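Entry, Tuesday afternoon. Goal for today is a structural model of the target with zinc ion bound, before we commit to ordering more compound. Inputs were pasted exactly as handed over by J.K., no edits. I checked the ligand SMILES twice against the vendor sheet because last time a stereocentre got dropped in transcription.
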Amino acid sequence: MRSRRTAVVATAVAVALPLLAACGGGSEASSSGMQVVTSFYPLQYVVQRVAGDRADVVNLTQPGKEPHDIELSVRQTAELGDADLVVYERGFQAAVDDAVEQSGPDHVVEAGAAAGLEGGDPHFWLDPTRLAKVAEAVEAELARVDPANADEFSANLATLRSDLTRLDRSLSRGLADCRVDTIVVSHDAFGYLGRRYGLDVVGINGLSPDAEPSPAHIRTLQGLIREDGITTVFSEELVSRELADSLARDLGIRTAVLDPIEGLSDATAKQDYLSLMRANLRALQKGNRCT
Ligand SMILES: [Zn+2]
């Protein structure tokens, strides 16, 4: 199980390498702007939207990598220590927590505090209104680091906020009237989305994609799928689909991709947070038969 997953990740990284070079995520990128380090994709997205071209953004989780268990290179740790601003989420990536503690950057946004976490679940960004709160905290801190450009950050925040509000409205309307209100997902990343839009979320794995389910849990899931008339089991891009596939096969139902947007992969490299959330909405509407 683990070795298979590692192989999949390694392939994705190999494919993603030219992309990395193109993105120029390193400190040698040419700009006189701020250096901002983010720890995984949704935080990178927010900083890029709010800072615009006033910052070089280095993201610690490379495309194709699942962010929960990343390790940092010596160079990445140094970049974090030298950054003008670090945006991360405490308790989500232990290696990043350690590096922040060791290097004590001058300016930090801790996204979990800004988003308001519930019950130890780190996946706040799947509720766009919580990502908007993080964007506000990022804007405030960017203005402290670079006050001369504060007006620009404020204008960029307003644009991002209206995009997130529109997305939130689409999700609310699009999921208001569904035949099925339960979703079975491969790792338990969709709690915030479920609470915001009225879906019961049941994970095959736990909060981390590595936590494997017991046979008793699988039996419970099978019963639930039959009772609730569930026709789709949702899996994701960056982790193995084996469990979701076998569960669906045993019950004669479908699988579809629901992206927890923890990172981009080679399959989603041209997308962004907004387009991936809209793809998630379409997948949910189809799987749960929403009108
Ligand atoms: Zn996760």
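The radius of gyration is 19 Å.
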